[in-house]
Amino acid sequence: MNSALVQQVIDEVVARLQQRAGQTRTLSAAQFQDIDCRAVSSQHDALQLNEVSLPQLRQLADHEEEDRMVRKLFEVLSLGLRVRITIPGHFLPAIPVHKLAGLPLQWCDEHERAIVLHPTTLLSYADLACLNESWLVLRRRCVTTALALDAARARNIHLIKQE
């Protein structure tokens, strides 16, 4: 390849990356199962999933790749897309926090309020230092320091413990 052709290829790649930057595709969980992951990743850099059910969240937590949605989700992540999943607020006490917290996903409720999954057994002030107005879902046996409770109240962070 000559340098002009290499430069043309580089310019084309940069143009496509700039075009897809900031583009988010929003889909329901049912629609997501039928998408072409490569086509979505070529046009968008983020994916918003809505209407995800509690059984689907459990399958995701258990890495059940026999499930079509879970398999597609891992494929999308492998293609470099950022994924944000909307969870109804009433699901929060029942989601498997410890397993889901390790996945490279963002979470929010139906009102676009951030959800943070806290997988450890101690909640301290340091864990809340960078949070504001969000849900913080804790494990069942999580110990919370008094300073953390005060910080949560002051920053409008709602603490939810697993059932």
Helices, by number, come to 8
Report the portion of residues in β strands.
Answer: 15-25%
Largest sheet, spatial ordering of strands: 1-2-3-4-5-7-9
What sort of overall outline do the alpha carbons produce when their principal axes are compared? globular
* Portion of residues within helices: 25-40%
Poorly predicted runs are none
Give the H and E element order: HEHHEHHEHEEEHEEHE
Distance between the termini: 61 Å
Average residue-wise pLDDT: 91
- β-strand number: 9
| Cα gyration radius (Å) | 19 Å
Concise structural overview:
The protein contains 8 helices and 9 strands. The chain has helices spanning 3-20, 29-32, 37-43, 54-61, 68-78, 97-100, 125-128, 146-154; strands at 24-28, 46-50, 82-86, 106-108, 114-118, 122-123, 135-138, 143-144, 158-161.
What do these coordinates show?
The longest helix has 18 residues, at 3-20. It is globular and about 65 Å long. Helix 6 links the parallel strand 3 (82-86) and strand 4 (106-108). The protein has a 7-stranded mixed beta sheet with strand order 1-2-3-4-5-7-9. Strands 6-8 form a two-stranded parallel sheet. The termini are far apart. By secondary structure, the protein is α/β, with parallel strands linked by helices. It has a domain at 3-86. The model has no long low-confidence stretch (mean pLDDT 91). The chain is 40% helix and 21% strand.
